[in-house]
Specification:
By secondary structure, the chain is an all-alpha fold. It has one domain. The protein is built from four helices and no strands. The protein has helices spanning about 10-20, 25-35, 40-60, 65-75. Helix 1 (about 10-20) packs antiparallel against helix 2. The longest helix is centred in the middle third of the chain and has 20 residues, at about 40-60.
Length: about 80
């Protein structure tokens, strides 16, 4: 089974939707531009993407505590 890779644009769109921003707003355009040019942010989002894909691919069941610790480690606790 092949897992679809998420693009930076999809990540930026998701961030904008999560923030309640219009996808064509200046903030979202800035996020998309930043992701295209910032190697550090790009690497961070790729690692988050791979973690999410592993969860989905292997249908990993974890406790709420484990999930919370992972989200905190990935600096994504605010999105829980």
């Amino acid at each position: 089974m092949k897992i679809k890779k998420i693009t930076c644009k999809e990540v930026a769109d998701y961030i904008c939707e999560t923030l309640g921003e219009n996808l064509n707003s200046p903030k979202c355009k800035d996020i998309k531009d930043h992701l295209e040019h910032c190697e550090i942010c790009n690497s961070y989002y790729k690692s988050v993407q791979e973690t999410v894909q592993m969860y989905k691919q292997y249908k990993i069941k974890v406790s709420d505590d484990c999930h919370s610790r992972l989200m905190k480690y990935l600096d994504l606790a605010e999105f829980e």
